Amino acid sequence: FHIGEREEKCIIEDIPSDTLVVGNYKVQRWDIHKHDFLESAPGLGMFVTVTSPSGEVLLSKLYGPQGTFSFTSYLSGEHIICFQSNSTRFAVIAGSKLRIHLDIRVGEHFLDESAIQTKDKVNEVNVRLEHLIEQIHHVTKEQDYEREREEKFRKTSEETNSNILWWAIVQTLILISVGIWQIKSLRDFFISKKLV
């Protein structure tokens, strides 16, 4: 994505609780002379801020023009990940565009291939089995989180439907009351004018 040099850009990630999140990014600055983005942006860094659903700041750190950040979610829900360059230029001068390449991995644990190659076949199978078990735990955790969200959504939908029903009943009662009052008022008017 592209941002201005002094602009802040935030991304919302829906993450289950107790989940490791790893993000890799790379910043490129627009070169006016070449009319292209430079491969690297020396001297330019990024402030990375991560906020939990409760508003608690989980991570707030300055990184270089490319780097890796990681955090563990303690609550399930929408986590806000914000990026802002550390540019010290004035807002008038800092009109340069930045391109940010971002890769966010949620709950993934990668195998260390070099460690596997040095061990014998039994240990390799053991390490791969542990990795699979870890992935199964992560998938189970994701499913539990989705069930929790679905239950919350269903409860909200049922409450909304109940409120709509009561609102329709109240509207009907008001309409009937106004109709009865109009009929009574017209009847009294015609009787007082001796038209009936």
**Main sheet record:** 5 strands, antiparallel
Order of helices and strands: EEEEEEEEEHH
The overall pLDDT average reads 83
CATH topology of the largest domain: Jelly Rolls
Beta fraction of the residues? 25-35%
Radius of gyration: 30 Å
Structural class comes to alpha+beta
Commentary on this structure:
The protein contains two helices and nine strands, in the order βββββββββαα. With 196 residues, the protein is of the alpha+beta class. The protein has two domains: 107 residues, GOLD domain (Jelly Rolls, Sandwich), CATH 2.60.120.680; 36 residues. The strands form two sheets. Strands 1, 3, 4, 7 and 9 form a five-stranded antiparallel sheet that branches. Strand 3 and strand 4 form a beta hairpin. The radius of gyration is 30 Å and the shape is elongated. The protein starts with a strand and ends with a helix.
